[in-house]
Amino acid sequence: MKKIFFLLLVTGILNQSYGQETKDSKTNSKEIESASNLVFNPDQSVVTQHNTIIKGQKVSYKATTGTMPVWDEEGKAIAGLFYTYYERSDIKDRASRPLIISFNGGPGSASVWMQIAYTGPSLLNVDDEGYPLQPYSIKQNPFSILDVADIVFVNPVNTAYSRATSKEVPKTKFFGTNADIKYLADWIGGFVTRTNRWASPKYLIGESYGTTRVSGLALQLQNNQWMYLNGVILVSPTELGITRGVATDGALKLPYFAATAWYHKMLSPDLQNKDLTNMLPEVEDFTMNELLPSLSKGSSLSEQKRKEIAAKIARYSGISEKVVMQNNLDVPFNYFWKELLRDQGFTVGRLDSRYKGIDRKDAGERPDFNAELTSWLHSFTPAINMYLRNNLNYKTDFKYNMFGSVSPWDRSNDSTGENLRQAMAQNPYLNVMVQAGYYDGACDYFNSKYNLWQMDPSGKLKDRMSWKGYRSGHMMYLRKQDLETANEDLREFIKNSLPKEGMPAKY
């Protein structure tokens, strides 16, 4: 995850875009009582009308902000999910209008990241590389996909303003890979019914753990809601429950190391002088064809071959051969973030390794803090609190949880990658696109390629799978150039995954 300050294309549009409450407002006045006695309302909303400029054209839209219940088997509300639903106002044929259902990750993270920095109609104030700026503010997003699709940003329980209705509701209803997928599928089914969007082409987009979430939801929606999707977009994907061995885990991180070292100019001149995407194929080839087999051999690897492999790892990673040998050819992520720029007195970020941090001491095996996350919270937290209250007119005394408590989280029986494959196999309309940042050390780009290879070992689905890389990190859209490119890639994906009129869903 970057950057954004754009000149408005039409003077005065920003002032008329925000905070215009309409007669459709349904906010319950009992929601806010006193700071010592807050009452959570799981079913309420407020509607505002807005205008913006996207790709040089005026777009009018309605924003519905509020909560909608999660129901149990007896029809009792056990939670309320906070959401923001953006609908373009001048659409006459809503049946053919795509609907994007958006989740972030964590698993305890709010939808704030993609809502006000990627696909939504508004952007937080950061510079062109994603670093915080003051004064904190919100501006228009000239690259938003709202021109081609409506979007609902959904916050799972304990994120943003989403809450269980009672402390007596078991946490196991929400906090686990499969529990999360089950109740969110039910909520989506209810939302689509309530908003009359069953006819619309539907897409899921998830970031980070949100990719685990939407991969599982694709099959859950088909099997239990009888809802069939046109597309799933995986932004900075996790491992999706696809098993890696020790050797595979050790090998696949090297291309990310190389990208980070290239960015910080820590490679030898022959590699450094190549463009990033011209340099990386060499590293990827070495990773799959030499490093992976060598790590698989363990202690049976000859000493001569061990030194040869160590020298190549050092060449591609920017760290010393001695350190590589000390770590048995498998340098941990934490150590790499501490080691790469140790002599310069800096660490590099986990989620975006373009960011640098300063530790108490240069010695040690891991950074003191995540430099990039601290930077992002600096800019995102004020922006979302201001935006919801002042621009979308949603007023509450509840705390907006950037990260909410979702512990303990049950990660057992994660088969979400296989679930997505099954959903694709059963639905010829369903397409998948992956978006990954080269400098992401949490969900690294080469592992996201590996996911696609292992999800579809026969290669029969590869024509409906695509992969896009960007020169930034976990939230690649924070970098202005990637914000524009990544949104354009989404537009193209939506366009290409809409079947031609009369085209049946069959093989």
UniProtKB/TrEMBL annotation:
It comes from the Bacteria. Keywords: Carboxypeptidase, Glycoprotein, Hydrolase, Protease, Signal. InterPro entries: AB_hydrolase_fold, Peptidase_S10. The keyword Manganese does not apply. GO terms for biological process: proteolysis. Pfam families: Peptidase_S10. One of its GO terms (molecular function) is serine-type carboxypeptidase activity. PANTHER family: RETINOID-INDUCIBLE SERINE CARBOXYPEPTIDASE, SERINE PROTEASE FAMILY S10 SERINE CARBOXYPEPTIDASE. This is Carboxypeptidase C (Cathepsin A). The lineage of its organism: Bacteria, Pseudomonadati, Bacteroidota, Flavobacteriia, Flavobacteriales.
